[in-house]
UniProtKB/TrEMBL annotation:
Domain AAA+ ATPase span(s) in chain numbering: 42-166
Record GO terms (molecular function): ATP binding; ATP hydrolysis activity; DNA binding; DNA clamp loader activity
NCBIfam families, sorted: PRK00440.1
Keywords, comma-separated and alphabetical: ATP-binding, DNA replication, Nucleotide-binding
Name this polypeptide is given: Replication factor C small subunit
Record's subunit section: Heteromultimer composed of small subunits (RfcS) and large subunits (RfcL).
Positions that bind ATP: G50, P51, A52, G53, T54, G55, K56, T57
Length: 323
């Protein structure tokens, strides 16, 4: 678990990052198509879209390692558009890399992470750069929302949509990592990690490493404590209390989650949304809850007070309890 040279703890996300496309977890159809591009030596510009922690960056690095081998770092430029949003990064850094002479390979790869953070002007400049250096440069763009990428860029790329990773795949990968690190764990601990991750493999691995650092068995209690995640039954109790008209009890549960457990309002909304159809409530109540949930989520995103909005959500549900 410790670094042999300095005794430092490695970050498991990097330590166990897949080195080949075939090792990328959760997207067999995508990796098969990408592998065919590599095998045919016919790599187009690529656009990877999907939530965080689903393998977009990992797949990009794996492509570079398969094409360039040990020379991959000399032929692979990684930029983060959320840090370098302006048009200058497109005109300067990308062009400088694209123009640099290199030998032995037909093209180099520029990986632009969080490309949906680029301004429209920067994206327009990027489109022209993609045209100008198409003979010797391939672009891989990564984003959360492909709709924020201008159409001229989308039309120049093969688009791959990375969905949240299946729970079974996350669980299997976590068990494999636990075995490699010789960790003691329980199945309810793995289930808790999968629930907290919600399809995000990076979050799952980081949570496993954090839970292992306690020195105890990785179990449900440890996982929920270190991930600041409410147990599904706590969320269900809070919502059920409100639906039953007991606003005081629902508010008390909410207060415990926010004040004592440190959960953010957005996290609570996400957990309620994920679980609403699993609650044992009538369909009309679930629909009403979702309606108010969407309104609260929007208001919080616009800067409203989280606690006020969540209490208003529970109050609205409780007021309609008898309908």
């Amino acid at each position: 678990m410790a670094d042999a040279a300095g005794g430092r703890q490695e970050i498991w996300v990097e330590k166990y990052r897949p080195q080949r496309l075939e090792d990328v977890v959760g997207h067999p159809s995508i990796t098969e198509r990408l592998q065919s591009y590599v095998d045919r030596d016919d790599l187009p510009h690529l656009l990877f879209a999907g939530p965080a922690g689903t393998g977009k960056t990992t797949a990009s690095i794996a492509i570079a390692k398969e094409i360039y081998g040990d020379d991959w770092q000399d032929n692979f430029l990684e930029l983060n558009a959320s840090d370098e949003r302006g048009i200058d990064v497109v005109r300067d850094r990308i062009k400088d890399f694209a123009r640099t002479s290199f030998g032995g390979y037909d093209h180099r790869i520029i990986f632009l992470d969080e490309a949906d953070a680029l301004t429209d002007d920067a994206q327009s400049a990027l489109r022209r750069t993609m045209e100008q250096f198409s003979e010797n440069t391939r672009f891989i763009l990564s984003c959360n929302y492909s709709s924020k990428i201008i159409d001229p860029i989308q039309s120049r790329c093969a688009v791959f949509r990375f969905s949240p990773i299946d729970d079974d795949a996350v669980a299997a990968h976590l068990r494999d990592l636990a075995a490699r690190e010789d960790l003691e764990y329980t199945e309810d601990g793995i289930d808790a990690l999968v629930y907290a991750a919600d399809g995000d493999m990076r979050r799952a691995i980081n949570a496993l490493q954090a839970a292992s650092a306690t020195g105890d068995v990785v179990d449900e209690e440890t996982v929920f404590a270190i991930t600041a995640t409410a147990r599904p039954e706590e969320i269900e109790d809070m919502v059920t209390e409100a639906i039953d008209g007991d606003f005081t009890a629902a508010r008390s549960t909410l207060d415990d989650l926010i004040s004592n457990r440190g959960l953010a309002g957005g996290d609570i909304i996400d957990q309620v949304h994920r679980s609403v159809w699993e609650f044992d409530v009538k369909e009309a109540a679930a629909v009403r809850l979702l309606d108010r949930l969407g309104e609260a989520d929007y208001r919080i995103a616009e800067g409203a007070n989280e606690r006020v909005q969540l209490e208003a959500l529970l109050a609205s549900v409780a007021l309609n309890a008898d309908e």
